[in-house]
Amino acid sequence: MVLNKPVKGDASYASRREIFGWAMFDFANQAYTLLIITVVFGELFTTVIVGDRGDGFRLANFLWSLALAISYLMVVVTAPLCGAVMDYRAEKKRFLLFSYLATVATTAMLYFVEPGYVVMGLILIVLSNYAYSMGESFIAAFLPELGPPEKLGKISGFGWSLGYIGGLFAAGFTLVVLGEATADNFERIRWVGPFAAGFFLITAIPTFLWLKERGTPQPSGVAYWRIAHQRVRSTMRELRYFKDLTVFLISLLFSMAGVYIIIAFAFIYGAQVIGWDENIRNIMFIIVQVTAAAGALGFGWLQDRLGAKHTYQMTLGLWVVAIIAIWATPEITAWLNARFGWQWQAQHVFLAVGCLAGLSLGSSQSASRALVGVFSPLEKSAEFFGFWGLANKLAGVLGIVMLGVLQTIIGLQASILLCVGLFVIAMLICAKVNERRGRDAAIAWENA
């Protein structure tokens, strides 16, 4: 692909309007993440559509984790192949459009999933989450073109922050207007699918109006699948030139396994372990969105000063503290009540824990995306972000399956400690990454 723009070391990049258009996709797709995966439909699926079949929701939790794992496995297989074609044919925007429309269509169809329609629910979650996850990789592939390496942390953080603001609007409206994810409220809450789809459909329009497709497609009569396989094989050989990117992706595999566990099970954990009521759930949602947006912006600013690697390591340390606090919430509540004579419930302490988790969530996702952008030559950005998507979703497969199986044996509360081990391993691996060397390798590749 021939780039119609300066290389990574030059100063002329995207306009503010184009960066805003790029970030609006984060704003739009958070409706899917929050309403379908994290806050509403996940709880609806496990507690109503499947329900407690005398096993304390363990079968429902396992089926939910299985559906997500299958969709992530599909991303693992296809993301690098699509990225290779997008770079070669300069079709990032076209692939993004296809994933966007597929996500909207399959999400809207969740309206038809009723209690007992387990197979239909599983199929639609697999398809919608696959399309959404592919779109994550496609939109991220534009990041290296938007600004110089020393500004990518701020740009990535702005996107994630805007995304959490979008999620605040989308899920806030849903929780207030549609109500609880309960059997008694099913006829109202089933509209969560069409609403999430409509929100995504409308608010992502600026992305397709303002985001530019840079580059000239290479002339080729070769089939897409052949281009994909040839390019991926070539890149696998070339990865020896990008040692730091390779090591970081291995670290990301472990850290994102922990993050995906939290995304998929946080509100299920609140309902089943903490036993929160609707008001506390709504407050928790607001807290997580606000603190995640603040974390993405704040750590994005910090990243451009301390470096992406150090910022990423700091966010993993935050996660370790947050997970221990999540696990120990009932014990912390009992200690506070005994020590100070309070009458708090676990759900009230869980709100404080949510602030720490929100900061960790926004900052870690933004830092990891920006670091891949720093390590990616522009002409390989889609392909490398395809590998980023592979690492992310393989992490989702491993993390969610491990948690799904583990919670059937020892319960959900104890199983959450799995995340601590995953984050610690990620920190140890990332210690071997040299950010300057990785950035120089990307620039040297372009100059060559």
From TrEMBL:
<feature type="transmembrane region" description="Helical">
    <location>
        <begin position="62"/>
        <end position="83"/>
    </location>
</feature>
<keyword id="KW-0813">Transport</keyword>
<feature type="transmembrane region" description="Helical">
    <location>
        <begin position="119"/>
        <end position="143"/>
    </location>
</feature>
<feature type="transmembrane region" description="Helical">
    <location>
        <begin position="283"/>
        <end position="302"/>
    </location>
</feature>
<keyword id="KW-1133">Transmembrane helix</keyword>
<feature type="transmembrane region" description="Helical">
    <location>
        <begin position="31"/>
        <end position="50"/>
    </location>
</feature>
<feature type="transmembrane region" description="Helical">
    <location>
        <begin position="314"/>
        <end position="336"/>
    </location>
</feature>
<keyword id="KW-0472">Membrane</keyword>
<feature type="domain" description="Major facilitator superfamily (MFS) profile">
    <location>
        <begin position="19"/>
        <end position="438"/>
    </location>
</feature>
<protein>
    <submittedName>
        <fullName>MFS transporter</fullName>
    </submittedName>
</protein>
<feature type="transmembrane region" description="Helical">
    <location>
        <begin position="95"/>
        <end position="113"/>
    </location>
</feature>
<feature type="transmembrane region" description="Helical">
    <location>
        <begin position="384"/>
        <end position="406"/>
    </location>
</feature>
<feature type="transmembrane region" description="Helical">
    <location>
        <begin position="191"/>
        <end position="211"/>
    </location>
</feature>
<dbReference type="InterPro" id="IPR036259">
    <property type="entry name" value="MFS_trans_sf"/>
</dbReference>
<dbReference type="InterPro" id="IPR024671">
    <property type="entry name" value="Atg22-like"/>
</dbReference>
<keyword id="KW-0812">Transmembrane</keyword>
<feature type="transmembrane region" description="Helical">
    <location>
        <begin position="155"/>
        <end position="179"/>
    </location>
</feature>
<dbReference type="InterPro" id="IPR050495">
    <property type="entry name" value="ATG22/LtaA_families"/>
</dbReference>
<feature type="transmembrane region" description="Helical">
    <location>
        <begin position="245"/>
        <end position="271"/>
    </location>
</feature>
<feature type="transmembrane region" description="Helical">
    <location>
        <begin position="342"/>
        <end position="363"/>
    </location>
</feature>
<dbReference type="Pfam" id="PF11700">
    <property type="entry name" value="ATG22"/>
</dbReference>
<feature type="transmembrane region" description="Helical">
    <location>
        <begin position="412"/>
        <end position="431"/>
    </location>
</feature>
<dbReference type="InterPro" id="IPR020846">
    <property type="entry name" value="MFS_dom"/>
</dbReference>
